[in-house]
Amino acid sequence: MAPKSSLGSTSQLIEELVAKAPDGPVDLEWLLRNLDRRSFGLLLLLLGLLVIIPGVATIATLALLFPAVEMMLGRSAPAFPRFVSKRQFDFKRFKRFTVFVRPMLEAIERISRPRWDARRDVIDRLVGLVVFLLAFSAGWPLPLVNVIPGIVVVLIAIAYLQEDGLLLTVAMAAALISLLGLGWTLWASADAVMKWMGL
Q1: Which of 12, 123, 138, 189 could form a disulfide with 146 if both were Cys (CB 3.0 to 4.6 A apart)?
Q2: CA gap 142, 194 in Å, rounded
Q3: 118: pLDDT confidence band, cut at 50, 70 and 90?
């Protein structure tokens, strides 16, 4: 079993955050105020989950770009421009979704443990770059195109929080497959359109 962090497991942190949430809508500024010192990792996890949920996926995908860029730049904590941070969304959907995904998170936590030797700043920049590309790919106007990138972001966030180099390697491989799959889909779609137009 993976050793427990003094700050609690990822699933416990999410449960505590959900318990603090008000009954009405919340905004990203509220999320940032309620995150602990692992704010980048936990924020990526929360936004990755939100990217999967219909109805809030669009704002979550946009929001995901900002912490990704800040990680690439080596910033110490996430921040959003006001027009993003004050955008409200229905947190009730997230609460219902966490009930569904918590068993999966707990299963990953049971087999995950700290096992990397890389420098934190190197990992931050790498994670930021990959998450940025995944968020960009999730924004394409194709049916269900947001689901797989969202799932991969969740895996990356858990690996980052757990400092699990093996899980991070698996998640990065999944990210590469996801990005290549989207690239092939876009190329095939563009090729089909050009043939239809006789170009």
Answers
A1: 138
A2: 18
A3: low
Structure tokens at 97: 């979704």
Separation of alpha carbons 47 and 61, rounded Å: 7
**SS3 of residue 88 by DSSP:** strand
In whole angstroms, give the CA distance from residue 19 to residue 16.
5
Round to whole Å and give the CA distance between 160 and 9.
Answer: 13
Which tokens sit at 169? Answer: 């390697």
Listed by start position, the domains of the chain span 10-196
Quote the pLDDT of residue 89. 74
Rounded CA separation 69/30 (Å): 20
What does the block give as tokens for 21?
């949430």
Give the integer Cα–Cα distance in Å for 25 and 22.
Answer: 7
- Tens digits of residue pLDDT in 4-15: 444 456 777 777
The whole-angstrom separation of Cα 105 and Cα 174 is: 17
Task: Say how far residue 101 (Cα) sits from the centre of its chain.
Answer: 14
Locus of tokens 């500024």: 29
Sequence-distant (6+) residues with CB within 8 A of 79 are: 32, 66, 70, 85
